[in-house]
Amino acid sequence: MFDRMGPTYDLVNRVSSFGFCELWRYQCVRHAQIQPGAVVCDLMAGSGECWPYLRYRKVSKIIAVDFSPVMVRRQQLRSKRVDLLIDIRKENATKMSLPSHSVDCVVGAFGLKTLSDESLSAFAQEIRRVLKTGGRFSLFEISNADRWFFGALYRWYVASFIPQIGRIFLGDIECYRMLGVYTQSFGSCERVSPIFERAGLKVEVHHHFFGCATALVGINP
Ligand SMILES: C[S@@+](CC[C@H](N)C(=O)[O-])C[C@H]1O[C@@H](n2cnc3c(N)ncnc32)[C@H](O)[C@@H]1O
Predict the structure, then answer these.
(1) Pocket of ligand 1, candidates 11, 40, 66: which has the most ligand atoms within 8 Å of its Cβ, to mutate?
(2) Ligand 1 centroid, distance to 46 Cα (angstroms)
(3) Backbone angles phi and psi of 98, in degrees to 5
(4) Is the torsion defined by CA of 47, 179, 11, 15 positive or negative?
(5) From the CB of 75, is ligand 1 less than 6 Å away?
(6) What pLDDT, on the 0 to 100 scale, is given for residue 10?
(7) Residue 68 has what pLDDT?
(8) Helix residue ranges per DSSP H, 131-188
């Protein structure tokens, strides 16, 4: 699915979210409270959409993990255009080759929704393993806005309207329709936070724009 979406993902994302995706990436990185010189792991990094915000934080190195060959190729192209040290790893974020306790911070925007609860558990354990003690993580995801008056309209927009935008740009309605399906079954970071607590992480949930997106933020105690 992500290989097919790769070439249009950035554009469809920006158009369909009215630019909110960029604000939310900025907030995802901000929640991580990254110090200058930090080594940061960008999990499910896509084509490196979070990197401009990490660059602004003056990180010393980004380790980008994504398993889609198309997204990784786009990362390689992007990495040539930015003055950042980037270690690109084409691998599964639920089973990484990174050494234990090797990164200061973990960020991840919009990658949680396609993980099953079992994969989320493996993912949380990997975050616990690779983070240094006291290291922070921040994960962001589109959510169901269950408690918002216009929540039903928003969910309809994600499930039915975004696929139409995908059809215009990609000529393929199915993979963007699946994103809506995944978003609905994901629910929100509130639903999945116990999975991260069970992995031994300290977790809090932040709501953004009436719960249209939620963030799972915490530390490796
Ligand atoms: C919706 S995109 C998000 C990309 C980017 N982080 C952003 O801010 O837009 C989700 C990405 O997660 C990747 N992904 C999903 N599951 C993964 C897994 N288990 N391991 C590694 N990458 C994964 C996909 O290949 C895709 O590039």
Answers:
(1) 66
(2) 5
(3) -65, 140
(4) negative
(5) no
(6) 84
(7) 96
(8) 151-156, 162-170, 174-186
Strands 202-208 and 213-219: antiparallel
Spans of the chain, pLDDT less than 70: none
Please identify which residue in the block is written with the tokens 């116990």: 194
Among residues 103, 115, 38, 45, the alpha carbon closest in space to that of 78 is found at 45
One CATH from 3.40.50.10260, 3.50.50.60, 2.60.120.10, 3.40.50.150 for 2-219: 3.40.50.150
Q: In whole angstroms, what is the distance from residue 117 CA to residue 63 CA?
A: 24
Residue 200 has what pLDDT?
98
Record the pTM. Answer: 0.94
Check pocket membership of 141 for ligand 1, CB cut-off 6 A. no
Q: Which helix (H) or strand (E) holds 66?
A: strand 61-66
Q: How far apart, in whole angstroms, are the C-alpha atoms of residue 32 and residue 27?
A: 9
Residue 50 beta carbon below 6 angstroms from any ligand 1 atom? yes
Those residues whose C-beta lies under 8 Å from the C-beta of residue 187, and which sit 6 or more positions away, are 143, 144, 146
Q: Given this model, what pLDDT does residue 54 score?
A: 97
Sheet holding 86-90, edge to edge: 86-90, 61-66, 39-43, 103-109, 131-142, 213-219, 202-208
DSSP letter string, 116-146: -HHHHHHHHHHHHHHEEEEEEEEEEEE---T
The DSSP code for 114 is G
- Extents of the domains making up the chain: 2-219
